[in-house]
Amino acid sequence: MTRLIIDTDPGIDDAYAIALACASPEVELIGVTTVFGNVGLADTTRNALRVLALCGREDVPVAAGADRPLVQPHPHLAVHVHGEDGLSGLADTLPERATGLAGVDAVSMLVRLLEESSEPVVIAPIGPLTNIALLLAAHPGVRSKIERLVVMGGGIDGGNVTAAAEFNVWSDPEAARRVLVEESVPVTLVPLDLTTRCAVDGAWLDRLGTSGAVGETLVRMSGTYREHYQQALGRDGIVIHDAVAVAEAVRPGILRTTRMPVDVDCGLGPSRGMTIGDRRDHRVRIYEAPREIDVALDADLDEVRAFLGSRLAGVH
């Protein structure tokens, strides 16, 4: 069984991702850490606690992490996509969790969970990478305890928050560059290029909405998100980016990856936050890249949608 930690900024698609992990017997969800991103840290932390309560997971420790990027101020939140509270204005309708926050910050809890684990741990960072960059910079000794990072972020062929940049990487490009380019921990990057292709339609949502309490709640609190994607996609449906990444953490190989070097633009111009994937043959590269990572660019899309739908509906 895979031991899993989710680092998250809930967010609608983060809520689907957390619920997916809770519904998957292949993984033991041993912790959730929160970070600023879609909304502010206080809201992302409350949302993580309440989604876990919805899923009946009082046992999973939760710790709050970074409330700002490493270097530059965070330009803006994603309230126009996720709602002012991150959950379409419905966060307070979710059950409160009797178990509150762990008595430590996110990085401290990550260190403890990693050091106490008898086997390597998979971490799924599905928000800005600030917590993970801080962890690896301050505690390099835990690298050997991380099996891999399954990161939702980046866009090899363009972005969503700008023409060049995807939201998670754009929110803290310096942290993203440290994790994706400068570190040695194995990474599977799940970018927009694939997650957008895995969009689910209105019929998929309608089926999930009649599957039980968790499915009904997820669909009900997707209102603002669904409205946004009706405009972005031109049809009824949503893109549950983060759940696609967690699907790979739960079932390794459900996404097909290509190894390549990547870089992140940390400049202050219009390409800030761009994720640059070098898909050229290594024999024609002029310089030696620091390292290569696995980038998920393809999958059996129907299989991914079916897997997400069945798990979130409670069918294993």
Question: What does it look like?
Answer:
It comes from Actinophytocola oryzae. Residues 4-304 form the Inosine/uridine-preferring nucleoside hydrolase domain. With 316 residues, the protein is α/β, with parallel strands linked by helices. It has a single domain, classed as Ribonucleoside hydrolase-like (Inosine-uridine Nucleoside N-ribohydrolase, Chain A). Helix content is 37%, strand content 18%. It is built from 13 helices and twelve strands. The protein has helices at 12-22, 41-54, 79-82, 106-116, 130-138, 167-171, 173-182, 192-195, 202-209, 213-220, 223-233, 241-250, 301-312, and strands at residues 2-8, 27-34, 62-64, 121-125, 146-152, 187-190, 200-201, 237-238, 255-260, 262-264, 275-277, 293-299. The strands form three sheets. Strands 3-2-1-4-5-6-12-9 form an eight-stranded mixed beta sheet, sandwiched between helices. Helix 4 (106-116) packs across helix 5.
